Amino acid sequence: MKKIAKLFAVTAIALSVSVAVNAQDLTQATELYNTAATALNEGNHAAALENFQKALSMADALGEEGATLATDCKNIIPKLYLQMGKEAANAKDMDKAIELLAQAQKLATEYGQPEVAADAKDLVPQIYIADGNALLNEKKFAEAAAEYQKAINLNGENGVAWLRLGMCKANTGDTEGAVAAFTKAGEFGQKAAADKQLGNMYVKATAAAYKAKNNAATLENALKAAEYGNTKVNIYGGMAAFNLKKYDQCISLLEGDTSVNARYYLARAYEAKGNNAKACENYKAIASDKNFGAYATSKVGTLCK
Fold it and tell me: CB–CB of 203/225 below 8 Å?
């Protein structure tokens, strides 16, 4: 009986020590939490995060006694990662921002904070786009394209990322890739901007083809530019169409253009089609021009009697 009494006495002493240790640990965990909160209020997010994490570790080890404190830490930590990720992005430290936001998303999901997880997830593509924009401004098109592709890999319906990817493709001469990217951009809310970029791309291609004296490519690209609302190179397309004896396309591209060059080719296209009335109208309009006047006047004399 004496041995049993002694065993109970030892057990009681052990329980008393355990309670005391737990109380001491909870006090330390609470102090760490308070230190973290102070650092947070002072804007020292790194110190705040470190101490919240230490407080959480100690609170988790205490089981039920530390459950409330652990929950309080878990409510703050993912939001703190999210905030630090935003700050890193604003400081142009994109790699750090991605790392912090990934951790915010992971912990927010683990701790049952779907809104924080969603915010972190949505911000990551924006950071890739911002990084891509900086590279695009420096004309580092391949590097920028890689960043936009990362954003697309995370969200295939990001119209802005598709648009900027198309711009990179266009600037590196990848017409097929640019068209595909701009088409996707149009599908996801960026149609007006995508069409403008497509028009600009075909304008450049038209000018290059005209300079190379490639009538077929000049006409093809001018028609494409017009299809997307850009008529800047209609004159080149019209001249190319005339040279290719495609008089209807020449007229379609140049009708309404009152410049001397357009009038000259319109007159000749109409004449080739046998529409002397329209030919005369245009020849008369340029009869006083120093370059085409003599030719136009002679035509007026023969066609317009």
Answer: yes
**84 closest CA partner among 116, 57, 129:** 116
Q: Which of 291, 241, 244 is nearest to 266 (CA)?
A: 241
* Cα–Cα distance, 227 to 78 (Å, whole number): 50
Rg (CA), the chain: 36
Structure tokens at 98: 């991605």
Query: How much is the pTM?
Result: 0.73
Separation in Å, CA 243 to CA 162, 197, 220: 38, 28, 13
Reported in sequence order, the residue ranges of the chain that DSSP labels E, i.e. its strands, are none
Burial of 107 (0-12, 13-18, 19+ CB in 10 A): buried
Using the structure block, give the residue that is written with the tokens 């609170």.
Answer: 59
pLDDT tens for 183-206 read: 999 999 999 999 999 999 999 999
SS3 301: helix
